């Protein structure tokens, strides 16, 4: 089954009991057993719920994975992944990375003796030189947040596997519609399902998808059922409904983003535009090689911090808000919002400063978006 059909139909496609085309919301905490030592396959919704199972199986199929777990947030999913590691382990991460990921690593899991090192994963030689004897995983965002750096998934996977390490890829920015890291050699994919997979800014969710690696699957099963950060049935149903239109949404967002990225370069107050779909992006050819689309995320810098700050209050159509991936266009100020708690030296290293704005492009009429951004960014 091809991707767009799979997005519309899902794993089962309909309720096999009633024939309902909209997969039902099994809003039940517990399930009746026919007799002792007999089960319908469902016992308690924290462990397994039919609606959530349909979501998990559908996303696993989209990412070409063996198993998927749906979490109550993307950060809950990352927290579960970090529990795969032990005291003394070393993990390499993209130095340009969502601030919440940096926070959970540095403020929480470093207390357990796990060592985290942030490097430029868009430079394969830097990655190679940074691997140590105790490196157990490489965690990559590609494109990265917010500087849109692109990492070579296939090349990094070869390096990781040569050192018996896992490659984890955050695929939030492109979604499985545009990029499938597991087919390129990655072992684990993480999504903030809140973003493109949901696409309507009305669900907070996380998804972790794994290749057929039995030890990892067994441990994640244990973590998942023990900690209880599972996604509820109603949110699972909303996610299923949203994924039906994934292709339509992200392709329209990409279309708008391509037009806006080129147009932003013409504004006198804009000094730099970072979008992987621009031919002058340093990783444009790599993007063509490992993805089927460029996505809807643009970052750009303006001439001064004053212009950036004032623009946020002048917006009329575009929303000044955190998050991304929804049908509404959002403008974010990373240094004060998504990356406020990241180490200042790390932000300076990658170029996140008070002139940088991040645009999550929606599906509105692009001319309306241009008009609003033009007046907001004017001096």
Q: How would you describe this structure to a colleague?
A:
Pfam families: Cys_Met_Meta_PP. It comes from bioreactor metagenome. This is Cystathionine gamma-lyase. This protein has 379 residues and is of the alpha/beta class. It has helices at residues 3-9, 50-63, 74-82, 99-108, 124-130, 153-162, 175-178, 214-227, 233-243, 246-264, 284-290, 305-314, 344-350, 366-377; strands at 67-71, 90-94, 115-119, 135-141, 166-170, 188-192, 206-210, 270-274, 297-302, 319-320, 330-332, 356-360. It folds into 2 domains: 3-243, Aspartate Aminotransferase, domain 2; 247-377, Aspartate Aminotransferase, domain 1. The chain has 14 helices and 12 strands. It is globular.
What is the chain-wise order of helices and strands?
HHEHEHEHEHEHEEHHHEHEHEEHEH
Q: Separation of termini?
A: 51 Å
Instruction: Give a quick account of the main beta sheet: strands, pairing sense, barrel closure.
Output: 7 strands, mixed
The total tally of domains equals 2
- Number of strand segments: 12
Overall shape: it is: globular
Poorly predicted ranges (pLDDT <50, ≥5 residues)? none
**CATH topology name of the largest domain:** Aspartate Aminotransferase, domain 2
Number of helices: 14
Main structural class: alpha/beta
How much of the residues is beta strand, in percent?
Answer: 15-25%
CATH class of the largest domain: Alpha Beta
Give the name of the CATH architecture of the largest domain: 3-Layer(aba) Sandwich
Read across the widest sheet, the strand sequence of neighbours is 1-7-6-5-4-2-3
pLDDT averaged residue by residue: 97
CATH homology-level superfamily of the largest domain: Type I PLP-dependent aspartate aminotransferase-like (Major domain)
Radius of gyration: 21 Å
Portion of residues in helices? Answer: 25-40%
């Amino acid at each position: 089954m091809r991707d767009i059909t799979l997005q519309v139909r899902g794993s089962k496609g309909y309720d096999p009991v009633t024939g309902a085309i909209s997969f039902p919301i099994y809003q039940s905490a517990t399930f009746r057993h026919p007799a002792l030592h007999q089960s319908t396959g469902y016992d308690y919704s924290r462990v397994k719920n039919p609606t959530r199972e349909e979501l998990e199986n559908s996303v696993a199929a989209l990412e070409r994975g063996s198993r998927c777990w749906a979490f109550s947030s993307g950060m809950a999913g990352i927290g579960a992944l970090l529990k795969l590691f032990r005291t003394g382990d070393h993990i390499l991460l993209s130095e340009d990375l969502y601030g919440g990921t940096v926070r959970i690593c540095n403020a929480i899991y470093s207390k357990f003796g796990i060592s985290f090192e942030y490097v430029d994963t868009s430079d394969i030689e830097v990655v190679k030189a940074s691997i140590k004897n105790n490196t157990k995983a490489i965690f990559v965002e590609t494109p990265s947040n917010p500087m849109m750096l692109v990492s070579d998934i296939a090349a990094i996977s070869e390096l990781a596997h040569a050192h018996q390490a896992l490659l984890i890829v955050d695929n939030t920015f492109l979604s499985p519609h545009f990029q499938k890291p597991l087919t390129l050699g990655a072992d684990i994919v993480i999504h903030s399902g809140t973003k493109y997979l949901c696409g309507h800014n009305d669900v907070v969710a996380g998804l972790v998808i794994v290749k057929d690696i039995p030890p990892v699957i067994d441990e994640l099963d244990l973590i998942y059922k023990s900690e209880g950060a599972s996604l509820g049935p109603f949110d699972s149903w909303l996610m299923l409904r949203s994924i039906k239109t994934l292709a339509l949404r992200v392709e329209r967002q990409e279309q708008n983003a391509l037009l806006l990225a080129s147009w932003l370069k013409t504004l006198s107050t804009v000094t730099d535009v970072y979008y992987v779909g621009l031919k002058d992006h340093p990783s444009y050819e790599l993007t063509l090689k490992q993805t089927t689309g460029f996505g809807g995320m643009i970052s750009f810098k303006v001439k001064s911090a004053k212009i950036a700050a004032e623009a946020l209050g002048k917006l009329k159509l575009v929303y000044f808000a955190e998050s991304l991936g929804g049908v509404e266009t959002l403008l974010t100020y990373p240094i004060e919002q998504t990356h406020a708690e990241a180490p200042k030296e790390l932000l300076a290293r990658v170029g996140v400063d008070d002139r940088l704005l991040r645009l999550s492009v929606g599906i509105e009429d692009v001319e309306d978006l241009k008009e609003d951004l033009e007046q907001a960014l004017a001096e």
